[in-house]
Amino acid sequence: MVENGAVRLVPVQVNALVGNDVLLGGGVKAGQTVVTAGVNMLRNGQKVRILSADVARRGDTEAAATGGAAAGGAASGGRK
Fold first, then answer.
1. 9, 18, 43, 46: most buried, per Cβ within 10 A?
2. How far is CA 15 from the centre of its chain?
């Protein structure tokens, strides 16, 4: 989840997987920003900036074409 421009790790309850969607039953509230791409490269408290949906989709498309990780995603963080 992102608060004040930084990632905060929070435990969530997964209720179901439906296709490519994950239905959460707890841990986040409506309206909160959840990071869904590149999370394995982020640290708790790391500053991030939210990418537009177009940029995120473009990164996902490029990753699928090259077989690599998405360049875009929901958030982009630099190590500081």
1. 46
2. 18
